Amino acid sequence: MTAYYTNNLSAKQAFQQQATQQAAQLYAQARQVSFTQSVRRLFGGEKTGLKSLNADADASQVASHKVEIKAVNLNAIKGSCGRSKDFDADYKPINTHSRERWIRVATAVFIGKQLPAVELVQIGTQYYVTDGNHRVSVAKALGQNTIQAHVTVWEMDRR
User: Which of 68, 77, 92, 157 could staple 60 via S-S, CB 3.0–4.6 A?
Assistant: First the structure.
């Protein structure tokens, strides 16, 4: 029984290690693409950074309501509340300080762990992440089209 448990544990550890290596490779690829795209955007006069919810919510919020969990198109997620300096406009990581967190999230995805839905604010047709920036970044890096999200819709007074 002990040998079976030890062999099974070793297989689990090997699987975890392989998933972590895949996650680290995916992170490195995402960072490289981010750098290349940032240079192109910079020379093309385009904005390179992620939008900030605080900067974009320039009008008065008049009402808000929550929507049940729903699938949100990842391309509709345009910004963040508090993490706009950590990701580029395509939600690729641009800073190394959150590398370990990014890799942990990607590893969890690779081993099949169910991650919680992200938290989003919707203003018009655009979404901003209030919780789950790394989950959004990893999902986009993996080529997913949608992500499960708790959405709070903000109605704005744009007078």
Answer: 157
Q: Alpha-carbon distance 62 to 29, whole Å?
A: 42
pTM to 2 decimal places = 0.77
Determine the 3-state secondary structure of 61 from DSSP: strand
Residue 123: phi and psi, rounded to 5, are: -125, 110
> What whole-number distance in Å separates Cα of residue 49 and Cα of residue 38?
8
Q: How many CA atoms lie within 13 A of 89 on its CB side?
A: 11
Going 22 to 24 to 27 to 28, the CA torsion angle's sign is negative
Q: pLDDT (tens digit, 9 = 90+) per residue, 1-54?
A: 445 555 566 877 887 888 888 888 878 888 777 767 766 656 666 666 777 776
- Domain ranges in the chain are 2-157
